[in-house]
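Table S7 (text form). Paired inputs.
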Amino acid sequence: MNESTPQRPEGERTVDAPLVTIDLPRFMEQIKKEPAWLNGPRNAITVFKSERLRIVLIALHSGAELPTHSADGIISVHLLEGRVQFGTAEESVQLERGQLVALHEKIPHSVLALEESLFLLTLAPVFKPTYGG
């Protein structure tokens, strides 16, 4: 499956196939050249997307925030560059390059970039089997 969006109408990347190769250095370079990054506080590129797993590369300018929200699945945040503050109502941790945090579904959380940062967000949505019948 090729992913096309209004931001990337050419759909240049395969995001779901039996084997998906993800060139992170290329995407890390691309994300910082796009208008959303050049003109706004953040940018994101979905690098893998299926019913049971989604991986998104997210870039935040220093001071940019993903305000409190929750996810319908277990997530992980793996910091590739920079420093971020990842917080829930009960706990807040500062992540530096190479560190990873995991969080169960439906827990409100936020992310604040303490400096220009890039991270991989992995989401495993809650699987809801469909029954015929």
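Next pair, protein 2 of 2.
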Amino acid sequence: IFVYSEPDRGTTFKLYFPVTEEKLEEEKAERTLTMPHGSETILVVDDEETIRRLVKDTLTPLGYCILEARRGSEALQIAKGTAPPVDLLVTDVIMQGMNGKELRDRFSEELPKIRAILMSGYTGTIIAQHGIAVPGTDFIQKPFSPSQLAELVRHVLDR
């Protein structure tokens, strides 16, 4: 790994991998992934539009109703005024204003039937060290695959 950095110009990383003579296993015929479906209402809170869109594009075709918010205060307003009620909160941990744990705690106080999944690009260890994730917290590490998300959502809702 070579790194080159210059002020006001940026940084370049060069990664060199060894050549291998091993043949790759041929991919099997296309497999159809079957992801669990549902009809519940899910509120996705993340300050990054691309993450909200990924979650929405993954879960909408599976039958879920997806609501979106950019920040915690907006999420609370949406949840209070939504019919049918929100069944699941999927929130980023690190956001400006109210973080994901604070948002989850507010939801627990005001709308106790809502379940929550915290998501972050930080490792679970870092999140735990900052007291954001406690035992029993449903957590998904970014980046995640659509099937990982769909399975965790269904698992949390079915519990």
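The beta strands are 2-6, 10-14, 41-45, 65-69, 88-92, 115-120, 139-141.
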